[in-house]
Amino acid sequence: MKIISAEHVHQHLNFDELIPLLKNSFSRPFSMPQRQVHLLAPEQSDNHDAFALLPSWNEDVIGNKMFTYFPENAAKHDLPGLFSKIMLFKRQTGEPLALVDGTSVTYWRTAAISALASQLLSRDNSQHLMLFGTGNLAKFLVEAHLTVRDIKNVTLWGRNSAKVNDLISEFTALYPAVTFKASVDVNVEVANADIICCATGAKTPLFDGNLVSAGCHIDCLGNHMKDARECDTTTVTRARVFVDSLTNTLNEAGELLMPIAEGVFNKGDIVGELADMCKTPSLLRQSNDEITLFKSVGTAISDLVAAHRVVQKLAD
Q1: Is residue 295 part of a domain?
Q2: Which residues, in sequence order, are CB contacts of 258 under 8 Å at separation 6+?
Q3: Of the candidates 163, 159, 162, 275, which has an alpha carbon nearest to the alpha carbon of residue 222?
Q4: CA 195 and chain centroid, separation
């Protein structure tokens, strides 16, 4: 059994391969039971330490992504709050294949799924990307979206202006053909964006859904909590809504659960899951004026596919 580091993951994944691989994998049979998140001290209201299990399998491989979440680690132990590993087994025999770093895989597959959804739902001529969030995912998201659309302008929003400016300098050097700007007025920028990608820890909506322009594609991937959301009810009710996983989003995503609780949206309004999007083109964008929304909370099958690709490339 191989032990595969984050360095190996970064060396052997690229979006030109990963995005079409994920599309193909979601078009084929797979199994993905609902993930399990266990609070380690549920009797303590102020303790949010958790352990999670995310199983999945397809015709090639069986996998279980496991992660621990200890939010006080940084303050108490000078350690990251999250550790993640993906265990892979051969589908035909059940033999262990590899233990893969899960944190790095998560960055790659999250950005690849975001870009895949945009490739399927955004207008072909989309040129202006507005990215909310300056965390570790930002670099991956920019590269992934540039892989699938001819983006000319990127507006970057973040709470820390120094971090925004540092990223803009880095991106400008990497992608000289693209104009990168810091957000100045969200109301104006949202109205002019072709694609809005939200990857933040925000608990309340980042923009007014009334300002979203016709034809815009919106991607919300930062929130995994029932009582938080990156976009408002207006955004949801104005859009045709797609999700990565019905089971997980309807258990975790405040973006959908809050409008449902308000009685203005229901689960039957969700057009389809990512697997449906990959298999049934007729479900996708219906017109240039349509607003589309993709809500993602992450899927175990995308972790499995990305991790297995690293294993295969190391074996070549």
Answers
A1: yes
A2: 227, 229, 233
A3: 159
A4: 14
Per-residue pLDDT of the chain (316 residues; tens, 9 = 90+): 899 999 999 999 999 999 999 999 999 999 999 888 898 998 988 888 999 999 999 999 999 999 998 989 988 999 988 899 999 999 999 999 999 999 999 999 999 999 999 999 999 999 999 999 999 999 999 999 999 999 999 999 999 999 999 999 999 999 999 999 999 999 999 999 999 999 998 999 999 999 999 999 999 999 988 999 999 999 999 999 999 999 999 998 999 999 999 999 999 999 999 999 999 999 999 999 999 999 999 999 999 999 999 999 998 8
pTM over 0.90? The answer is yes
Domain count, the chain: 1
In a domain, 54, yes or no: no
Give the whole-angstrom CA distance, residue 272 versus residue 29. Answer: 16
Is 107 contained in some domain? no
CATH number at residue 291: 3.40.50.720
Expressed as residue numbers, the domain containing 232 is 121-300
- Is the separation of the CB atoms in 233 and 161 below 8 Å? no
Rounded Cα–Cα distance for residues 28 and 125 (Å): 29
